[in-house]
Each structure stands twice: as structure tokens, then as C-alpha cells.
Amino acid sequence: MHEALIDTDILSEFFRGNPIVVAHFKDYLLEYKTFNLSIISYYEILNGLLFKDAKKQLSKFKQFVHFIK
User: Fold this and answer.
1) What is the spatial distance between Cα 14 and Cα 65, in angstroms, rounded to a whole number?
2) Confidence of residue 69 (pLDDT cuts 50, 70, 90)
3) 3-state SS, residue 26
4) 37 neighbors 3 (Cβ within 8 angstroms)
5) Where are the domains of the chain?
6) Given this model, what pLDDT does residue 68 score?
7) Among 64, 27, 43, 61, which residue's Cα sits nearest to residue 4?
8) Range list of H helices, 1-69
9) Which of 16, 33, 50, 60 is the most exposed, having the fewest neighbouring CB atoms within 10 Å of its CB?
């Protein structure tokens, strides 16, 4: 497995609980301990959650991003 930049689609599937994506995230984190997220993907997810007024998901996303810093 190679180090990767996680894109918006993969992040969306991860937060939806897609079991295949979640499993790949776990495998990836076992090897690399963290991951890369572009500022573009960050703001795409953030704006989508704000637009939907998805407070619970927004809180989860902020905690998730805090983990990678």
C-alpha cells in the first residue's frame, strides 16, 4: 500500500459507514498512522455539512480532522 491523499468521495463514503471504505481506512491507518487530506476536500465536506445543517455530522467531521493534525 502506498501513502495516499484522501479525496472527498472517499471521505463521504467513510462518514456514511461504507464497510469497504471503513476497512480500508483501518488498514491504511495501521500502516501510516495518519493520512493526508487536501484543503479542497476539507472545505467541500465542511460546506456540504453546513449547507445541510448537519450538526451531528459536522461535529464528527471536526473531531476527525482534529485527529489528523
Assistant:
1) 13
2) low
3) helix
4) no
5) 5-68
6) 76
7) 27
8) 8-16, 19-32, 39-51, 55-68
9) 33
